[in-house]
Specification:
about 65% helix; 2 strands
Length: about 550
């Protein structure tokens, strides 16, 4: 009897071993096909094997990594860059090898993508890759690698920063105090002390601002010594630093500067005194605001009880005064700001917006720029800055009560402001109340296809009951083979057009759709991504492979 059982057990074990061996052979064949760049065959073979079972995360990751590695070595620059994007979207240490290949590219755009995504990986190997990036022929790549190493407080960071600083022209030296300040060691602070006495005023200014931004209050005595003989820009920056670090020992100096005929210094000193507890100091800021000094107007948003003055300033003949007064009201959660803000976030005119900084770079106001479409041809004009300012204003509006914010959001969506829709949707998702869901459902039926797509995507991400997964699946089936993922890697010699911006909007929608599926990490979502890799524009496969890795982590 025992012999029969033993024979039976051996037979079962042999069958299991044979089946397992067969499965391993099939997996090996799939990976062989991927290595041979027979992507369609490999995908079809995988689907054939696993059509009735759950997905094999291990084999999917290996397939994706092979695809990305082949893409990174491809001679086609677009495929190389989309492979870097895919490796970055994977957000996995497993993709580091692919990103390192990008550092060997002769193109700055590919190297920039590579070092950007490497900086998000946190392990010793990624730090070694950043050290490799320091050998790049392109200064922006080396600077980003240095910045990342400094943030990590890497033991070699100081030596590498110093080495590069001394090799570069002296006019680039002002970029370095903020990098040294990131490290925060006693050794790095010694460089900040040296910079405070540098002959270049811009180096000194950046050092003062870095001391404030990193709260190095042990260096305050050195700033106090500099106060009497400092430049206008430095005085403004020192006032800001004293206020930020809550140093009350300089109050008498601040009072003298508050009476300065140099308005920027006067505002900065008055603001410092106010934040250090001197209520009377606000009177100087109010006085200059009434004279329509726009730095003073922008400062009023931080002053208690300034609502009525700000509202009066929204009636000014100066459009920049109106704009910054309205933003100040918005900070105060005063809905009267919408009398001006509506026409800014909801663009009804051909205008753009730019930040304008004081000489000490501690104060800023927003400036209206007319003729935005015409300025698109200017290589120095960056349309994304204008969009970022509108997004900043929209984020400030989020602090209003829900009813007022949703009414504003409704107005934006009904006016077809496609460029700001993705950001608005992300804000709405952060406060998924019943009223928010009702608004999203309303526009999920919009005649504007872009808005309809994003609101359906949002409802899917919020896991609201409905046919939203089906909508995403159908959208991908219809759209994913048409658009090539567009990367915002335009050089200064390339003209910026409205069409370029539109392509980037569609790229963001495409990536957001797939990212939402990847985050679900269920069988159906994985199947949709797999089918898309099979049927999409062949170049898009490399980016989608990264999302497949993320979905199987």
């Amino acid at each position: 009897m025992k012999a029969i059982f033993k024979l039976f057990f051996i037979s079962i074990l042999a069958i299991y071993i044979n089946l397992n061996s067969l499965e391993q052979n099939e997996k090996g064949y799939i990976l062989y096909l991927m290595h041979s760049n027979e992507i369609e065959k490999a995908m079809n073979k995988y689907q054939e094997i696993y059509k009735n079972d759950g997905h094999d995360f291990e084999i999917l990751q290996k397939m994706s990594l092979i695809l990305l590695k082949n893409g990174a070595k491809n001679e086609d620059n677009q495929i190389q860059q989309l492979s870097m994007l895919g490796a970055g979207l994977a957000a996995s240490n497993a993709s580091l090898e692919i990103l390192e290949i990008g550092l060997d590219s002769p193109l700055i755009q590919t190297q920039q993508l590579s070092v950007h995504f490497i900086s998000f990986l946190q392990d010793d190997n990624s730090s070694l890759a950043l050290l490799k990036a320091l050998k790049s022929d392109f200064l922006p790549v080396r600077m980003e690698a240095l910045y990342s190493l400094a943030k990590r407080k890497h033991p070699h960071a100081i030596g590498q920063i110093e080495s590069l600083m001394f090799r570069l022209p002296v006019f680039l030296k002002p970029y370095f105090p903020s990098i040294f300040a990131l490290i925060g060691t006693e050794e790095s602070k010694k460089y900040l002390i040296k910079f405070l006495n540098d002959q270049d005023a811009n180096v000194r200014l950046e050092t003062i601002l870095s001391i404030a931004n990193h709260s190095y209050d042990e260096l305050l005595p050195l700033l106090r010594k500099r106060f009497p003989n400092s430049t206008t820009a430095e005085k403004e920056a020192i006032c800001y630093t004293i206020s930020t670090l809550k140093d009350t020992s300089c109050n008498e100096d601040l009072k003298k500067l508050a009476a300065s005929p140099i308005e920027n210094v006067s505002i900065s000193a008055s603001k410092a005194l106010y934040f250090l507890g001197n209520e009377e100091a606000k009177n100087r800021i109010i006085e200059l605001s009434k004279e329509e000094n726009i730095f003073a107007v922008s400062t009023l948003g931080d002053i208690n009880g300034s609502e009525e003055i700000l509202y009066k300033l929204t009636k000014s003949q100066n459009k920049n005064v109106r704009l910054n007064a309205a933003i100040g009201l918005l900070k105060k959660k005063d809905i009267r700001a919408f009398e001006v803000i509506d026409n800014i976030v909801i663009k009804k005119e051909d205008i753009a917006f730019e930040p304008f900084f004081s000489v000490g770079r501690t104060m800023m106001y927003f400036k209206i720029v007319p003729g935005a479409l015409h300025r698109m041809k200017d290589s120095q004009f960056d349309p994304t800055i204008s969009l970022q300012i509108r997004e900043f204003i929209l984020k400030e509006a989020l602090e209003l009560n829900e009813k007022d914010f949703l009414a504003f959001a409704d107005k934006i969506l009904s006016s077809n402001q496609n460029d700001i829709v993705p950001f608005l949707i992300s804000l709405l998702e952060n406060k998924p109340t019943e009223a928010t869901i009702i608004l999203l459902k309303k526009y999920s039926l919009s005649n504007n296809k872009f808005i309809k797509d994003y609101t359906n995507l949002s409802l899917y991400r919020l896991k609201v009951q409905g046919n939203y997964e089906e909508y995403i699946s159908n959208w991908i089936k219809k759209e994913n083979h048409i658009e090539l993922i567009q990367l915002n890697l335009m050089g200064k010699d390339k003209e910026v057009t409205i069409e370029d911006i539109t392509k980037e909007e569609n790229t963001r929608l495409l990536i957001d759709m797939y990212s939402a599926l990847a985050q679900m990490q269920d069988r159906k979502s994985l199947s949709i991504i797999l089918n898309s890799i099979l049927k999409t524009n062949p170049k898009n496969r490399y980016a989608l492979a990264g999302l497949l890795i993320r979905a199987t982590e």
